[in-house]
Design a protein that fits this description.
Shape: globular
Number of helices: 11
Order of helices and strands: HHHHEEHHHHHHH
Strand order of the largest sheet: 1-2
Radius of gyration: 17 Å
Helix content: 55-70%
Distance between the termini: 48 Å
Low-confidence stretches: none
Number of strands: 2
Largest sheet: 2 strands, antiparallel
Structural class: mainly alpha
Strand content: under 5%
Mean pLDDT: 86
């Protein structure tokens, strides 16, 4: 099967316009959708397309209500999912999170991380080996903390330092996703490089 064409800026703009106008109860925003699809791409067991589309639009496609061309919307999302799969499946894996700007213009990772966690919930039991692993949990911690303010407060109780940690965690999203993809598939990592990466992340948490 020929690969679908990757989304260009016009495609992303059309998709974002639909998501902004769609019923909020069901449909995520663009950054959240990107995180959701990234989580689906990382776990080694594929999730049937009709199943994860229901997670986006609701069990009866409530989220597609009001769409002028529902098939075009679904097509854009399927292409986005395939593009993420292709990037993570490259050698080396590559992840380029779509992040909304914060009030100061800096990238904001919270929505993306919330979408990622929503994607984990689709097959949560398949994530347990990663959560039980020291390496896997280390790579998941920035994502989980950005999605959960209470967890972020537990990691860093000091407010000023917590803002810096949020920025550091946001900057690490691409690296964490790439490492999780490799680790989930037991692709060997250079042990020295992995140790160095883990040590760097620990220092950021202090």
């Amino acid at each position: 099967m020929e690969p679908l064409a990757p989304l260009n800026d016009e495609d992303l703009g059309r998709l974002e316009s639909f998501l902004l106008a769609a019923p909020e109860e069901w449909t995520p925003l663009l950054s959240e959708l990107d995180g959701f699809l990234t989580a689906l791409a990382i776990q080694p067991e594929p999730v049937p397309q009709n199943e994860w589309l229901r997670e986006i639009f609701g069990p009866n496609t409530e989220g597609l209500e009001g769409a002028v061309d529902p098939e075009a919307v679904v097509s854009l999302i399927v292409r986005m999912h395939q593009e993420i799969l292709h990037a993570l499946g490259a050698d080396p894996p590559r992840c380029d999170p779509i992040l909304d700007p914060d009030t100061d213009g800096s990238p904001m990772g919270e929505l993306w991380a919330e979408g990622f966690c929503r994607g984990m919930e689709v097959r949560y039991d398949r994530w347990q080996p990663l959560l039980d692993s020291k390496v896997g949990l280390t790579m998941l911690t920035p994502i989980l903390a950005l999605a959960d303010l209470e967890l972020m407060r537990q990691i860093e109780p000091r407010k000023k330092q917590r803002y810096k940690l949020k920025d550091d965690y946001t900057a690490d999203l691409h690296f964490c996703s790439e490492a999780l993809y490799r680790f989930a598939r037991k692709i060997p990592l250079e042990l020295r490089a992995l140790d160095a990466e883990m040590e760097e992340m620990k220092q950021k948490e202090k």
